[in-house]
Each structure stands twice: as structure tokens, then as C-alpha cells.
Write a structure and sequence with these properties.
The chain is 31% helix and 17% strand. The chain is built from 5 helices and 5 strands. A 5-stranded parallel β-sheet has the order 2-1-3-4-5, sandwiched between helices. Bound molecules: 1,3,4-trihydroxy-5-OXO-cyclohexanecarboxylic acid (DQA).
Length: 157
């Protein structure tokens, strides 16, 4: 059987506290629930998933480097680093596959400091405010053939 394309799902700081942390903003699902739902959707789509979360910026950068050429696509919720980190942006600028940026909450409807994202212009799509469904939608989107060819999840390097 041919190997399934691997989608890297990368979660930034504090997302390990999902379900406990500000549930009125982020909902009651835990990160384990997010992972379970992502794996279920990926199964339906014939994708494999490499799901990670870290609170350490260097660990995230190393993970992006590690997956830079091997991952067919990236679903990235960089959490607070979205609004602060040139270094994470630079690492993501070096990946081969398409990036979908995901946020559980609608960052554009919240505090002004959340409106700017260092990642959005690298992403083929930015999904905000759909909760965990946003992650599933990102996977579905990455499984679709893309018209711009060279950034498609299934395009050959
Ligand atoms: C978040 C939004 C960010 O502004 C925030 O720092 C997070 C989570 C979201 O998923 O809605 O930690 O990325």
C-alpha cells in the first residue's frame, strides 16, 4: 500500500490547557479531543497525522525543521506566537508543503493585539472561530487537489 501523506498538526503554547483554560473562549474540548477528531478526519481522508504541542519556541522551530520536507502539509495553531514570533514565521517560510493557519477563537474579533498574524501571509487558508471543527476543515482542505500545483499537499517535491 502506498504511504499516506503525513500532515503535521502543530500546536503552540498553552494549548495543552485546552478544556480548562478560558472555556468561554476556547470551548470545553481538550487537546486530546482535538487530536482524536483530527485523527478521525484524517483517516476518512486517507491522511496520516503527526500531532504535536509544545510550550517552547525552540522545540516548535526544531519540529518545523524536522518536518520541513517530509510533511505533505501543515495545520498550524501557533497560539500566542502567532502574534509575536518572527522566528516561527521564518521556520514556516522554509517548509515545502502548504500551511493552513487555524485558531479556535476568532482572533479578528478579539483584542487588537491578536489581529496581526506573522503566519497568515504564508498560509493557503486561515481558519478562525470554528473551534475544533476548524482543524477538521483544515485537513479536508489540505486533502483537496490545489490549483496552484506546487504548494499542493499531494504534489511531488
Ligand atoms: C489561539 C488565539 C491566540 O490569540 C491565543 O494566544 C491562543 C489560542 C486560538 O486558537 O484561538 O493561545 O491561537
Amino acid at each position: 500500500m502506498p504511504q499516506q501523506p503525513v500532515i503535521a498538526i502543530l500546536n503552540g503554547p498553552n494549548l495543552n490547557l485546552l478544556g480548562e483554560r478560558e472555556p468561554e473562549v476556547y470551548g470545553h474540548d481538550t487537546l486530546a479531543d482535538v487530536e482524536r477528531r483530527c485523527r478521525a478526519r484524517a483517516d476518512e481522508l486517507g491522511l496520516a497525522v503527526d500531532f504535536r504541542q509544545t510550550n517552547h519556541e525552540g522545540v516548535m522551530i526544531d519540529a518545523i525543521h524536522e518536518l520541513r520536507s517530509s510533511a505533505a502539509g501543515f495545520v498550524v495553531n501557533a497560539a500566542g506566537w502567532t502574534h509575536t514570533s518572527v522566528a516561527i514565521r521564518d521556520a514556516l517560510a522554509a517548509v515545502r508543503g502548504p500551511i493552513v493557519e487555524v485558531h479556535l477563537s476568532d482572533i479578528h474579533a478579539r483584542e487588537e493585539f491578536r489581529h496581526f498574524s506573522y503566519i497568515s501571509d504564508l498560509a493557503v487558508e486561515v481558519i478562525v472561530g470554528r473551534g475544533v471543527t476548524g482543524y477538521e476543515d483544515a485537513l479536508t482542505l489540505l486533502a483537496e487537489p490545489r490549483e496552484d500545483g506546487d504548494r499542493g499537499a499531494f504534489s511531488t517535491p
